[in-house]
Design goal:
By secondary structure, the chain is mainly α. Helices cover about 90% and strands about 0% of the residues. Helix 1 runs antiparallel to helix 2. The protein is rod-shaped and about 75 Å long.
Length: about 90
């Protein structure tokens, strides 16, 4: 029968080998989701630029769309960077 110390050693060696690839995959999936969300908003941003009249409402719409794209794209890139960083550790 495997002693408790042997079982613990086994878990200490096997668990990191399982968790690291799962963490990398999770960060890649989240990064892809955020980049898709940013890409879906790009046509709306183009439409907001075309409909821009200089009034506060169209400016605010353009500003919010731009901020949404920037935040979602930033999170997406950051998630891919974390996945790369986790795969190298």
């Amino acid at each position: 029968m495997i002693s408790l110390a042997r079982g613990r050693q086994l878990l200490e060696h096997v668990l990191p080998a399982i968790v690291r690839p799962l963490r990398v995959l999770w960060n890649q999936m989240i990064g892809f989701l955020f980049l898709v969300l940013a890409a879906v908003a790009i046509p709306r941003a183009v439409g907001s630029v075309r409909e821009f009249r200089g009034d506060p409402e169209s400016f605010f719409r353009l500003l919010l769309t731009g901020l949404f794209i920037a935040v979602m794209g930033g999170y997406g890139i950051h998630s891919f960077w974390r996945a790369h960083k986790a795969s190298r550790s």
